[in-house]
TrEMBL record, chains A, B:
Fumarylacetoacetase N-terminal domain: residues covered: 28-127
Name the record gives this protein: fumarylacetoacetase
Pfam hit, one: FAA_hydrolase_N
Superkingdom of origin organism: Bacteria
EC number: 3.7.1.2
Region of interest: Disordered: 174-198
Cofactor(s) required for function per UniProt: Mg(2+); Ca(2+)
Keywords, ordered alphabetically: Calcium, Hydrolase, Magnesium, Metal-binding, Phenylalanine catabolism, Tyrosine catabolism
Segments forming domain Fumarylacetoacetase-like C-terminal: 141-428
Pathway(s) annotated for this protein in UniProt: Amino-acid degradation; L-phenylalanine degradation; acetoacetate and fumarate from L-phenylalanine: step 6/6
Length: 436, 436
C-alpha cells in the first residue's frame, strides 16, 4: 500500500469533538465540497465531524502557505473545478495542512474555531460544474441480473468481459443530495399492450453507484494510459442514477437509455479524496477461471495491486408510512464496491483510448453495484425480479418500485481493522410531485 | 408562413460587395459566431459575404441601441451562451439592426467598414460552451438503412414511429470546422474473429447531420410543450458525427454507442438563426398510410404547418490523390432535411417531457439525414452497403471507408424561388494522424 502517512493514523484525534468517532467525517477523511452557511454565499469547505470548515476564511486568516494556499486560492469561486484540475500535489498538501490545523493540540485552535459552521445550518451544493457525465456498467452482478430479465439464457453479452461498457449520460440534471426528484412522465409500452401510452412512470427505481470526479484532464486525441489513470482521479462520491424502468424498456433500442435516466441523478456532495481512501485499496481478486485476459491497454501491474476498493454500500428506504410512524429507515440492500468487474483506472483508460478528452469536473459513474444475492441488489428491478416479487419492509409494507414520497438514502463506508472508518456522507432524495 | 419581414427581401443588397449573390452569407442570412482576427482575442461576430463584422466593435461605435445593444452586451466574452439565453426578441432586434447597417445606402457605412475583417484571415471558434450534447436518430432512411444491415427482416424497431429516438453524446470532443480528426483506436471484433483486437479503426465514417443550438432553457422538472419548442431554438449548424463502425459494432450492446462516436464531432461554426431560415419552413408531409399518429405531447398544429425544413445537404470528399492532382471535391451525397421523420420541435418536446432540463448552448443533433437512394446516403456505411460495395470517385479511386488524409466537407443550402439562398458555411475536417 502506497502513500499512507500520519493523516491516516487511527489514533489521530481532532479538537472538533464531533469528529472523533464520526461515522463519516473523522479527521482522517477531510472531504472537499461547496457549501453555503444559511443565506450566505457559496464557498469551498471541508467536512470535519458535524461541522464544515470555511476554506477561503482559513486562507484569509493566513493559516495556509505554499501549495495548500495555492489550492484554496484556485477554489475562490463557487465551483472546485480549478482545484480539481491541480491534481494530487496541491490536494495532498492541503490535506496535510488541514490535518494539522484540525488535530488535537493545534495551538491556533482559537483562530480556527470561528471559521467552522454547523453542517446542519448549511446548504451543500454540487462541488464542481460537471462538463460531461459518463456512466459505466462495471457491476457484474447487476449486468447479470438485468441481462437475465431480458435474455435468460445469455445474461452477459459477449463484449462484457473484454471492455468496460459505458455510455454518455446527462450532466444538466445531476443534483446534490436533498433535492427532491420528480417522477418523470414518458412513453411506455407494457407487454401485451397494443399501443404505447404516455404518463407518469410506474416503475421508478434507484441505482446504487459510486461516482468518480475527474481531476486533471487529457487533450483530445491523447489517451490516458491505465498506469497513469490514478493521477486523473480527484475523488469519489455516491451516485443514485434514478431510472424509470417502463420508459427504459420501450425506448432503449437501439441507442441506449435516454429519458429513462436523464430526469435526475443525485450525488453525495462531498468529494472523498483518493488520499482518504488509500488504506482501503486492495489487490484485484483473480479473474474467474475461463474469463479472458484484458487487452494490454487495460492492464497494469499497479492497477492489479491497488485497483480494487473495499467500500461497504447501503441503500435505505423510508416510506411515508414509516416516516409518520417514526420508524427507522429500512435497509433494502447491503453491497460492496468489490463487485466491480473493472477498476476505475480501467474505466478511464478505456474512456480515453480512442482519443476522447476528459476535463476537470467530469463525473464518471461505475454503474449499479450489486452483490451476488437478493439482499445486495443495487436496484429494485433486481431485488424484486423485475417487479414480480415485492420486497417486504419492517413496517409491514412492501415495494415493487418506488412510490410517491418514498425516500432513498445511499451510504458508503470504508472499513478496515486498524483504520478510522471513512464515510461518504449521505446521498438522499425524496420522490416528489410527478412532472406535470 | 410567419415572421417574414424586409430582412428577407430577395432584392435587399449589401454595400459589402462579396455578400451579394454569396452562396452562404448574403445579407439575408446574418449568422452569429465567435471569431478571432489573426492573433487577436476571441469575440462575437456576424458573417457577411467574405467578411466578418466585429459585434463588440459595432457596439463600442454606438451603432446599436435598445435590445440589439443589450444582445451584444451579453456577448462580451468568448462564448455566446448568454446571448442565446436571451431568446428571440433580442436576437431579432439585432438581426433587424445589422440588416440596416449592412444594407446598401446605409449612411454610416464609412464608420462600419473598418469593423469588418476578412474571413480568410480569421479563425472561427465554437460559438458557445456546449453543456450537454444529445444526438437523435430522426433520419428515417438512415434508420432503415442501418437497421437492414443488422436486422434485414425488421429494419425499423417498433418504437421508431412512436418517439424520436435519441441518446446522449460527448460534448467535450466537439470541435469547429477545420480541426483535424485523429483516427481513433479501439476494440473491435470482426465477424469470424476469435478474440477482439485493439488498434486504429478500419471502418471510419462520417455522418451528415444538422445541429440545433438551444437558446432559453427549461427548469428541471418542467417540460417544454411542443407548441412552445420554437422559442427554445437559437439556431442551426452542420454536424459531422464521426463514427468508427468497427468499434461501434462491438461495443454498442446493450447501452448504445460510446467510444465509436466520442473521439470527435465537427460542427460548422456559424449559428444560422431561425429568422434566416423562416422562408424555408414548410408543412410537414402527411405520415405514410398506416403510420401511428403521434401521442398528444408530440403533436401541435403550428409544428405541423411549419415544422419541416427544405434544406439541401451535401457531402463532399477530397482524397489526398485528388488534392495532389488539383481535382475538385467529389460529391458523395446529396440529401435534404425533409427526410426527418420527426421535427426539431418534437425532438425538444420529447427530450424534456420527463423533466430533463435543457440549457442555453446545449446542442442537439438530428442524427444522420439520408435520402431514399444510394446517392443520398448520409454515411459511407450506408452508401457502400456496409463496406461491401465501394463508391467510385471521379478521380478513379474508390472508398469503402475513410482513409488517412481524406477530407470530408458538409454543406447546407436553403433554396426557394423568390428568396436569397441561405448557406450554413462549411463543416470540414481532414482525417489526421491516428491516435497513438
Amino acid at each position: 500500500m502506497i502513500g499512507l502517512d500520519r493523516t491516516h493514523d487511527v489514533d489521530l484525534r481532532s479538537w472538533v469533538p464531533s469528529a472523533n468517532g464520526h461515522l463519516d467525517f473523522p479527521i482522517q477523511n477531510l472531504p472537499l465540497g461547496v457549501f453555503a452557511p444559511g443565506g450566505e454565499a457559496l464557498r469551498a469547505g471541508v467536512a470535519i465531524g458535524d461541522a464544515i470548515l470555511d476554506l477561503p476564511a482559513v486562507l484569509s486568516a493566513n493559516l495556509l502557505s505554499g501549495e495548500a494556499a495555492a489550492a484554496v486560492e484556485t477554489a475562490a469561486g463557487e465551483k472546485l473545478n480549478s482545484l480539481l484540475a491541480l491534481g494530487a500535489g496541491p490536494r495532498r498538501a492541503l490535506r496535510a495542512r488541514l490535518s494539522e490545523l484540525l488535530a488535537e493540540g493545534q495551538p491556533e485552535r482559537g483562530r480556527i474555531a470561528p471559521l467552522l459552521h454547523e453542517a446542519s445550518a448549511c446548504t451543500l451544493h454540487l462541488p464542481a460544474a460537471i462538463g460531461d457525465y459518463t456512466d459505466f456498467y462495471v457491476g457484474i452482478h447487476h449486468a447479470e441480473n438485468i441481462g437475465k430479465q431480458f435474455r435468460p439464457d445469455n445474461p452477459l453479452l459477449p463484449n462484457y468481459k473484454h471492455l468496460p461498457i459505458g455510455y454518455h449520460g446527462r450532466a444538466s440534471s445531476i443534483r446534490p443530495s436533498g433535492t427532491a426528484v420528480r417522477r418523470p412522465r414518458g412513453q411506455s409500452n407494457a407487454p401485451g399492450t397494443a399501443e404505447p401510452v404516455f404518463g407518469p412512470s410506474r416503475r421508478l427505481d434507484y441505482e446504487l453507484e459510486l461516482g468518480v470526479w475527474i481531476g486533471p484532464g487529457n487533450a483530445l486525441g491523447e489517451p490516458i494510459p491505465v498506469g497513469e489513470a490514478a493521477a486523473h482521479i480527484a475523488g469519489f462520491c455516491l451516485l443514485n442514477d434514478w431510472s424509470a424502468r417502463d420508459i427504459q424498456a420501450w425506448e432503449y433500442q437501439p441507442l441506449g437509455p435516454f429519458l429513462a435516466k436523464n430526469f435526475a441523478s443525485t450525488i453525495s456532495p462531498w468529494i472523498i479524496t483518493p488520499e482518504a481512501l488509500a488504506p482501503f485499496r486492495s489487490t484485484l481478486p483473480p479473474r474467474p477461471e475461463g474469463d479472458p485476459r484484458p487487452l494490454a491497454y487495460l492492464t497494469d501491474d499497479a492497477d492489479q495491486r491497488e485497483g480494487a476498493f473495499d467500500i461497504q454500500l447501503d441503500v435505505l428506504l423510508v416510506t411515508p408510512g414509516m416516516r409518520e410512524a417514526g420508524l427507522a429507515p429500512h435497509r433494502v440492500s447491503a453491497s460492496n464496491s468489490c463487485h466491480m468487474y473493472w477498476t476505475v483506472a480501467q474505466m478511464i483508460a478505456h474512456h480515453t483510448c480512442g482519443g476522447c478528452n476528459l476535463q476537470p469536473g467530469d463525473l464518471l459513474g461505475t454503474g449499479t453495484i450489486s452483490g451476488p444475492d437478493l439482499q445486495s441488489c443495487g436496484s429494485l428491478v433486481e431485488a424484486t425480479l423485475g417487479g414480480k416479487q415485492p420486497i417486504q419492509l419492517a413496517s409491514g409494507e412492501e415495494r415493487r418500485f418506488l412510490e410517491d414520497r418514498d425516500e432513498i438514502i445511499l451510504q458508503a463506508h470504508a472499513l478496515r481493522e486498524g483504520f478510522a472508518t471513512i464515510g461518504f456522507g449521505e446521498c438522499r432524495a425524496v420522490i416528489g410531485e410527478a412532472v406535470a
